[in-house]
Write a structure and sequence with these properties.
The complex is a heterodimer. By secondary structure, chain A is α/β, with parallel strands linked by helices. Chain A has one domain: Rossmann fold (3-Layer(aba) Sandwich), CATH 3.40.50.300. Chain A is about 40% helix and about 25% strand. In chain A, the strands form two sheets. In chain A, strands 6-7-8-3-9-10 form a six-stranded mixed β-sheet, with helices on both faces. In chain A, strand 4 and strand 5 form a beta hairpin. Chain A is globular and about 65 Å long. In chain B, strands 1-4 form a two-stranded antiparallel sheet. Chain B has a two-stranded antiparallel ribbon with strand order 2-3. By secondary structure, chain B is mainly alpha-helical. Chain B has one domain: ABC transporter involved in vitamin B12 uptake, BtuC. In chain B, helix 2 packs across helix 8 and helix 10 crosses helix 11. In chain B, a hairpin with a 2-residue loop joins strand 2 and strand 3. Classes of the chains: A alpha/beta, B mainly alpha. At the A-B interface, helix 2, helix 3 and helix 4 of A face helix 5, helix 6 and helix 7 of B. Chain A: InterPro entries: AAA+_ATPase, ABC_AA/LPS_Transport, ABC_transporter-like_ATP-bd, BCA_ABC_TP_C, P-loop_NTPase. Chain A: It comes from Halanaerobium congolense.
Chain lengths: ~260, ~300
């Protein structure tokens, strides 16, 4: 029996009269790579925003490693080990790739202002260690060459990888990836698939993946949850989900049913 | 109108330029993290000047202690403004923020008029700052020099701080994108408060410098320097700290030179200069002279 890392209990989010997420319950096991799919407006991104603290929960609970994190602020959620990416790339556009990566170390560096000013030994050792880690991760993502470029000047594929790299540098135990392959070309998508596998298998970071590219989802997820109108309509292995009548209906409409 | 005259005028303008630079840096930092033009910044500046004046004349403290008290008072004012004026309306649109800050500005100014009257009150200058020195034909006051050097040092320290420290990087992060910064584990609320603390402390220094330079303080004293500081922030490319500081100096010197070349009856037209500059920037280069750190969205 594998250990639970994240548990959503009857999670609900209402925007005025609209219920975006309705009594949504699920669990994620440690090390799992879970796909979260569903038509537009199904509540996938809203669920991410609820977990990450960007939206206030209307009712229900979010349990992370046996702690209730329902009411935490976004920075506190990041602090306890949940990283996320956003649907649109959210790099800090005026900064270089390296500076963006350094942001991720904000929660890790424990040197104080005096260490910074006087460049103490502690500061230098830590700084060196961080830079090495950044370099290593960038290298793994094949974007080390762009380290000193301003992010605005880079193509979207590189930006997307940098976006994910930064989330990884937070050293999370759980990562929420919101449509990482959106707007990517096939070869970039293939590369991202490998990266996601690496994050999940080698770095052992539990992953929830929201994705519209079915090829990606079916290829790498061990389990899939299908959402529609804020609730689960199907759950299971890729094969089972693909064959599910309700899923076909949600995606393609009733007329496609055999 | 020879070169010596111009050079003399530029030197005279250094202290004004310094004050505007300090104010502009505060404007630009607060705009950076909050997207808010803090019109009450001029009042925070005034509160610093008033506190120092009262500490010296009322309580008999020496200037350095008065300066520290001024910084404490201005920081308190800035933090209270953030907590009770801006935080409650956060996220409710630019117009709301704009009007809130304008209301805070007028409210504080009016409160001080009620308490102290609208007349100028004398700001005493200690003897050791009254010296003057000559370089050939050019005269410079010690005060002018001290204010300038002090400002340059503060700005350099601040630039270093923003570029290299954990808090500084977090501030830049929040100014680029608050939500993403939060996803990186940065508590944006405390960063915003920290920014108000720094900006208000700089305004207090500028306020004390103003009192020393011009010898008096009054409740409405923050209005013109506040507007000039804001325009310097725009000129520097809002969000850009060194740009704001340099623009503050340019604007101060520009103001003084502007009236220096006009007949002396027009000396009251000094504020006109900043408005002309604002008009020209907004017309031809709304992103400012220097590359902005903020992405306009």
């Amino acid at each position: 029996m594998s250990e639970e890392i994240l548990k959503l209990v009857k999670l609900t989010k209402k925007f005025g009269g609209l219920t975006a997420v309705k009594d949504f319950s699920m669990t994620l096991n440690k090390g799992e790579l879970l796909g979260l799919i569903g038509p537009n407006g199904a509540g996938k991104t809203t669920t991410f925003n609820l977990i990450s603290g960007n939206l206030a929960v209307s009712s229900g609970n979010i349990i992370y490693q046996n702690n209730d994190i329902t009411d935490l602020r976004p920075d506190q959620v990041a602090d306890i080990g949940i990283a996320r990416t956003f649907q649109n790339i959210r790099l800090m556009s005026g900064m270089t790739v390296l500076e963006n990566m350094q942001l991720a170390f904000h929660i890790w560096n424990d040197y104080n202002i005096l260490d910074t000013i006087f460049r103490t030994k502690k500061f230098k050792i830590k700084e060196k260690k961080y830079l090495e880690e950044i370099n290593e991760t960038l290298k793994h993502f094949n974007i080390l060459d762009y380290k000193n470029d301003k992010v605005d000047d880079l193509p979207p594929g590189i930006q997307r990888k940098a976006d994910i790299t930064r989330a990884i540098l937070l050293k999370p135990d759980l990562i929420l990836l919101d449509e990482p392959t959106a707007g990517m070309n096939p070869s970039e998508t293939d590369e991202l698939v490998e990266i996601i596998k690496w994050i999940n298998k080698d770095l052992k970071i539990s992953t929830i993946l929201v994705e519209h590219d079915m090829r990606v989802i079916m290829n790498i997820c061990s389990r899939i949850i299908v959402m529609e109108n804020g609730d689960i309509i199907a759950e299971g292995s890729p094969e089972n989900v693909q064959a599910d009548k309700k899923v076909i209906e949600a995606y393609l409409g009733k007329s496609y049913q055999v | 109108m020879d070169l010596t005259y111009i050079f003399q005028q530029v030197l005279n303008a250094l202290s004004l330029g310094s004050m505007l630079a300090l104010l502009a840096v505060g404007y630009t930092m607060i705009y950076g993290v909050l997207g808010l033009i803090n019109f009450a910044h001029g009042e925070v500046f005034m509160i610093g000047a008033f506190t120092a004046m009262y500490a010296i004349t009322g309580l008999g403290f020496p200037l350095p202690i008065a300066l520290i008290l001024a910084i404490i008072a201005s920081v308190l004012a800035g933090v209270l403004l953030e907590r009770f004026c801006y935080r409650p309306v956060q996220g409710s649109g630019d117009i709301t923020l704009f009007i809130t800050s304008l209301a805070a500005s007028i409210g504080i100014r009016s409160l001080f008029v009620m308490l102290f009257g609208s007349r100028s009150m004398q700001f005493p200058m200690p003897k050791y700052l009254q010296g003057i020195r000559f370089w050939g034909d050019i005269l410079i006051t010690d005060l002018n020099l001290i204010i300038f050097v002090f400002t340059v040092i503060i700005t350099l320290i601040l630039s270093f701080f923003i570029k290299n420290t954990k808090l500084g990087i977090a501030m830049r992060g929040v100014s680029y994108n608050k939500q993403t910064a939060e996803a990186m584990g940065i508590n944006s609320t405390s960063i915003i408060v920290a920014t108000f603390v720094i900006g208000s402390a700089l305004a207090a220094v500028a306020g004390v410098a103003w009192g020393l330079q011009y010898g008096n303080v009054r409740p409405a004293m923050g209005y013109h320097p506040g507007i000039s500081g804001f325009i310097a922030a725009v000129l520097g490319g809002i969000g850009n700290i060194s740009g704001a500081a340099i623009s503050g100096f340019l604007l101060g010197v520009g103001q003084v030179l502007f009236v220096a070349f006009l007949p002396s009856v027009y000396s009251g037209f000094r504020p006109l200069f900043v408005w002309i500059v604002l008009f020209i920037i907004l017309f031809y280069k709304p992103t400012g002279l220097f590359r902005s750190n903020i992405k306009w969205e």
